[in-house]
Amino acid sequence: MGTRIMGMASAGVGATITRAAKIISPEKRNVIFGGLKRRRHTSEICGRRGFGFGHTHTIECSCKAIEPTTETPTSGGGVTYQGVYGPWTIDPSDIREVLLYRTGLVSAAASFVVATSTAFLPHSFWLRDLLERSLDLLFLLGAAGLGLSLYLIHIYVTEIKRTLQALWLVGVFGSFTTYFALARPAGEGLVQYVVDNPTAIWFIGPIFASLTGLVIKEGLCYGKLEAAVLAFVIPTCLLGHLTGTMDNGVKMFLLGVWVTFFAIFSGRKFTQPIKDDIGDKSVFMFNALPEEERALLENSRKQKL
Asked: How far apart are alpha carbons 187 and 99 in whole angstroms?
């Protein structure tokens, strides 16, 4: 992916961060660095932590990762999680964001499943005609749901998140351009125009590229089979349509696989604990620090080396 998957530091860097923390204000030190000295290291690198810990330009090192986030019950009935940079808890806004993220995925999957069903329904079936007239609306709803999820997704490496969002925006712009400049003058809807004119994939394809990136992220973090299947099927199906090298039978098969695993993928998100989609909140707290305070940590690390 261009950005190297990273673990946070081993004992030497951990000691450096602890020493540098003395320079930072006591309040932030308690939040960000609490409990850091008690860390032990493992060789596991991703687990349930997104793509890595922190930005690659913040701490540029190659070493073992910290053990997975631990949790401790609190006296109030809640749970305190011990992250890389210190303890953190789940608040109502975190729960709301995760539920909206998952709802966006379900909206995208449901829209795609319903729209794609027209390819499998008999021509004489009454529902097919109704769905075919709604294809562009379904595409719009699906793209909006995906956009919501990409806005709320938690990825430690900000550059990856921004890239996925940029791909989505390019695809949305391309979709509107294709509709108003090509499909509408030809008397067709957007989706039907893309079906009849494979080169239009160039314009709407970035939306599906952002979806592919999202499922790859989910697959890497949680080891989901359905995510791995989607990461292969989505680009294969689109490239096959674009190049014209794939016959209709193969395309129908891949569409069937895409529909099935997309539904499973989105539905299974609601079986995961809320904390999974939050990740290590302490990492985002660290990244929210002013640049000069993050620079202090980096300078201290270089001095230690």
From this structure: 39
Count Cβ atoms below 10 Å from residue 130 Cβ, excluding itself: 10
Q: How far is C-alpha 225 from the geometric centre of its chain's CA atoms?
A: 16
Q: How far is 29 from 25, CA to CA, in rounded Å?
A: 6
> Two tokens at 285?
């707290």
CB 33: neighbour CB atoms within 10 A? 20
- Comparison of pLDDT for 29 and 274, the residue scoring more: 274
Report how far apart, in Å, the C-alpha atoms of 37 and of each of 11, 19, 32, 41, 289 are.
9, 11, 12, 11, 20
- How far apart are alpha carbons 216 and 222 in whole angstroms? 10
Token reading at 301: 């690390």
Q: What are phi and psi of 87, to 5 degrees?
A: -75, 150
Strand 41-42 with 87-89, pairing: unpaired
Q: Which residues are CB-contacts of 281 (< 8 A; sequence separation ≥ 6)?
A: 81, 83, 88, 90, 94
SS3 163: helix
Query: Cα-atom radius of gyration of the chain, to the nearest Å?
Result: 23
Residues 87 and 283: their CA atoms lie apart, in Å, by 11
**Average pLDDT in the 165-194 region?**
96
Taking the CA of residue 163 as centre, how many other CA atoms within 13 Å lie in the half-sphere pointing to its CB? Answer: 14
Q: Assess whether pLDDT exceeds 90 at residue 5.
A: no
d(CA 218, CA 244): 30
* pLDDT > 80? residue 155: yes
